[in-house]
Amino acid sequence: MTPTLQTESPTPAVAPAVAGGGGTSRALRAARSIAAKAVGGLVVLWGAATAAFAAQLALPGDRATVILNVRAGQAMKRTPEELAGVIEQYGLDHPVILQYLTFLGGLARGDLGNSYQQYRPVWDVIGEQIGATFALTFTAIVLAWVLMVVWVTLTAGRRPQVRALGSLAETVTAGLPHYWLGIILMLVFALGLGWFPVIGGTGLHGLLLPALTLAIPLAGFMGQATRAAFETALTQPFVISARMRGMGDLAVRLRHVLRHAVLPAVTLSGWALGATVSGAVVVETIFTRPGIGKVLVTAVNAQDLPVVTGIVVVIAAAYVVANLLVDVAYTLIDPRLRTS
User: Fold this and answer.
1) Separation of alpha carbons 191 and 73, rounded Å
2) Confidence at 339, pLDDT banded by 50, 70, 90
3) pLDDT over threshold 60, residue 56
4) What CATH number does the domain containing 168 carry?
5) Within this chain, do residues 162 and 102 fall inside the same structural domain, yes or no?
6) Which residues pair with 114 in a beta bridge?
7) Could you give the CA distance from residue 16 to residue 22 in angstroms, rounded to a whole number?
């Protein structure tokens, strides 16, 4: 019996170590994945900032003259003394690479510069309006999720005609441009029926039409990605088991199938937050709504480049943060991913 005891005794001691090592390994893999995505997010921000800086250099004309004209609100011929003061203030006589590094250094410190037109920090200009834009963005995403869940739950896995109708509606809505849909909704529900104000305000009543303009195409896009996963989940053994226990069809779909089918939509929500902030710029202009859309249009028309650059960087940052949050949401929705 002695040889048997000697060969088997190490096993209990080794097993916990292996289990602990497995947990540590999973934690390291998760940390590395998050770190890699964070680095990727920094690359996206760097690319957006670099593109914005390059756009400033690509504009026709002398930048010092542009700055003075923006300040004055009109195009005028400038004296060498006026130009010299602006060139010195903004370091426009420095080599381009030094201007670029100075620009990146300011962004790293959270300094977006000062508005040419308003003579104050860009953060202040954006900060006054970004709350309205984020309210519109998050409302649109919530509405998109509600529309998508209701539509897919009602039409997925049904008779072929119903499934075809569901897929067709998703394909059509996913391709609707925001500017066209916004005008149609305004003509029908604001001007025609008078249910909503033509000019969107900050209240819920003025928020719904702009939010729907963003939500409807997004719901169609997410529905396309969710439908296949939803119909696949309907054929899984846990669905059959739930039905055998007497659970109704709607309860099975909402309590069991939906949870396994929404991961594609969660992935798209990370992309959608950044895309919806960008789309909000167009929608805010259509509905004359407060937000960074109006600020951006004004800044572009006035060639207020620091404000334009700041909005580009803020939108890129929203996209990066959203995609990092998606990774966390994955593990909350599907516990299997925690132990993968």
Assistant:
1) 35
2) very low
3) yes
4) 1.10.3720.10
5) no
6) 121
7) 10
Angle between helices 305-333 and 10-58 (to 10 degrees): 160
> Does residue 32 fall inside a structural domain?
no
> Does the pLDDT value for residue 69 go beyond 50?
yes
Residues 83, 62: Cα–Cα separation, whole Å:
9
Instruction: Round to whole Å and give the CA distance between 111 and 60.
Output: 26
Selection from 113, 110, 73, 71 nearest residue 91 by Cα = 113
More confident residue, 50 or 249: 50
Residue 125: partners with Cβ closer than 8 Å, 6 or more residues away: 115, 118, 295, 307, 310
| pLDDT(15) > 60 | no
Contact between residue 260 and residue 283 where contact means Cβ atoms under 8 Å apart: no
In this prediction, residue 55 carries a pLDDT of 76
Q: Which residues contact 297 (CB under 8 A, 6 or more apart)?
A: 281, 285
How far apart CA 150 and CA 70 sit, in angstroms, is 50
What's the CA gap between 328 and 325, in Å, rounded?
5
> Which structure tokens are listed for 121?
């920090």
**Cα–Cα–Cα angle for 134, 137, 143, rounded to 5 degrees:** 140
Structural domain including 151 reads 122-339
What pLDDT is stored for residue 11 in this prediction? 41
155, pLDDT greater than 80: yes
Instruction: Count the domains in the chain.
Output: 2
Average pLDDT over residues 240-250: 75
Last residue of a domain, one of 84, 111, 138: 111
